[in-house]
Amino acid sequence: MTDPAHGIRPDLTLVQLTDTHIMPAGKLMHDTVDTSANLAAALDMVLASAAKVDAFLLSGDLTDNGSPESYRRLAAAVRPVAERLGAQVIPAVGNHDERSAFRAELLGTEPSTEDYNAVFDVSGLRVVVLDSSEPGKHDGHLGQAQLEWLGKVLTEPAPRGTVLVAHHPPLPSPVPTVHLLRLRDAERLGEVIEGTDTRLVITGHAHHAGAGAIGGVPVWIGPALAYGVVPVPPAGRLRGNAHAAFSRIDVFGDQVVATAVPVTPAASVYDVDEAERLTMFREVVGLW
Ligand SMILES: [Fe+2]
Ligand SMILES: [Fe+2]
User: Which ligand is closest to the CA of 19, given by its number?
Assistant: First the structure.
């Protein structure tokens, strides 16, 4: 019998873990959240799914205080899982990160406070990482040199197109604090990517999921793994809740689809055999 999942799996899958805010051992974020436990729960979900993962995108605020110890804790959690899955690890810098420790502990390169921009090839999908952080600031910035570099990178299209990873969303936010800390001068980024093979801009930082567009290119704001900012809080309040989530970014042909994945436990509504259900649905849509 034909595999009921035949022809319906994505060509490529990227797992976006953003705003992990890993803390030094024994410390809780806001005295409440065990961010390492959230990361472990997300990685366990990915492993249990037996999904084929091509890359992990770590889109900034990887640690809470930028300490080498925190990066080592992050690497110790992610690397073995990535190796087991044969997935690349693609990190980006956020406003809570420290570039020298990020480089030394995650990239194994010489410490440097220069902004970290890089290009990765994931089976023909070009992943461009842009450093939207600026040391000492929490809002996002891209320099002229970065934008010119990006323009050059995008001159030649990639076989499966390009996704751009940057920490700060180039979009307004309905949460006023997030809005104040968004990417500055985002329209300049839009001008560079408009008309190129860029299919999705992937960001984090907001701690709430969201979507929009810039320069005609869709933007995905991945929900945070550390905790969630409440987009509709009670009047006059700003609220963060202990909701953890990550994203999967799937490539189907020339389409790139972003999907939020809640990690925080919830009651089950159904839990059925996949092959049986797919067989039934194939019959329903007339696939056999
Ligand atoms: Fe964050
Ligand atoms: Fe951030």
Answer: 1
Domain ranges of the chain: 12-285
Other beta carbons within 10 angstroms of residue 199's beta carbon come to: 20
CATH fold for domain 12-285: Purple Acid Phosphatase; chain A, domain 2 (3.60.21)
Q: How many CB atoms lie within 10 A of CB 40?
A: 14
User: Global pTM?
Assistant: 0.97
Task: Say what the alpha-carbon torsion angle 94, 96, 99, 105 is, to the nearest 10 degrees.
Answer: -100
C-alpha 62 – ligand 2 centre gap (Å): 9
Residue 119: φ, ψ to 5°:
-120, 130
pLDDT at 288 (0 to 100)? 63
Q: In angstroms, what is the span from residue 124 Cα to ligand 2's centroid?
A: 29
Number of H helices, E strands in the chain: 7, 13
